[in-house]
Structures are given as C-alpha cells and as structure tokens.
What does this fold into?
Amino acid sequence: MLQLPKGDCRQIRDIGLEGESLKEDAMESYTRFPDRKISGAGPVSNCFQNLGIKRFVDACRFVHELPYGYNSDRDDLLILFKENLGSCTTKHAVIAALAAELDLQVVKKIGIYAMTETIVTGTGRILEKYGLPCIPMVHCFLSNEAFHVDLTEGNANGKNCSIEQFIHTETVIPNISEKEEYLLYRNVLKEKILKEGMLAGIEMKIILRAREEGIAILKANI
It folds into this structure.
C-alpha cells in the first residue's frame, strides 16, 4: 500500500479563511477506538461476520486496508463489500453504521477543507483558471469527540498529505446520500464560505465548476 507523506496542509489562514483547526496530529489510529464484539443482525454487522471479522477494531483495520477508489454507487451502504474498495465516503459510512449497530459512540463527520496545490497535485492550474486561492472540497472522517480517525490516511487517495484543518465540519448520518451531501456543501458555501475571507463575493457557479474539476484531479491522482 502506498504511504503518503505527511505535509503541512494547514493553509486556511494563509488564504484568508477562518477554519476549525484540529490539534496537531489530530487524526489518530483506529486502534484507539473502543472495541466491541460484532454481534446482532444489523446489515453491516452481518457483512463483517460473513467475512469472519468478529470485532469492531478488526473491521476498522479491514476497511482501512481496502484499496482506495470511487464506488459505482456511493449511496449503497454495502457497496464497499461488493466492490472490495472504497472512498472516504463509503469507508467511513460503513464503520459509522457498524458503530451505530453496536451502540458505540463513533460518528461520521463531513469536513470542508481548502484544497490547494500543496494538498493535491494539479490543483494549481484550476486555481489559476478561475482566479481562486483554493477550492472548498469535502472530505469525511470518524470521530468520538475525544479524537478523530481517517480510515483513508495512508491510502493512495489522491492527496499529498492528511487533512487536519477544515473550514467547516458537521456530524452526519453514516449513509448520507450524495444529493444530501451536495446540498449541505452548497449551503455551507452560501451561508459561510462565500461570505468571508478571500472567497467572499465569488459566484457560487465558479466554485462549483472548480469543484468538479477538482474531483477529476483527485480521481486522476489515485
């Protein structure tokens, strides 16, 4: 598995945005999560039990070690098991859903971060094209409030370093749909990001076009 270098991705203040800075090295190992035997008849629990995986932390390990990739249907909670790969969306959806089935206090969070050339190679030409300091992009991770875990950290996920500072974070249901996530993103743009800092006053349609090209760059970098 490709190991990505940890770089300094904390550039929000440099581009004039106020962000939610996680503490130094905030993304911790999944081994810090409380462990519990997988039991019961929940759909995610059943999938792990069918694979012979019997404990929550072992399920986290399995998901972390799966190849990173974009699934054919991200709204299918179980697509990761069918395609044997997952993105930050589907990997964290599965584990957050399993945690809910096991009554563990582990939730899925959506974060919007400032994507730049430092974080994702190839972003610079998009920024130049649209005259932007960064592209607000969605990433997600797990949290139990005391610490945060990114099960895609260390995967070949298209990023040059882990994300440890966000413009906005929000707890969501494990299997939030693609449409719901997009509407959440647009709302944060409208109500927060496009009202402050160096992105203030920029038309939303410009950000949305840059976002689409940013997604394409991320996919190409895998």
Q: What stands out?
A: The chain is about 35% helix and 15% strand. Residues 13-28+107-221 form one domain. The radius of gyration is 17 Å. The chain has two domains: 13-28+107-221, 30-101.
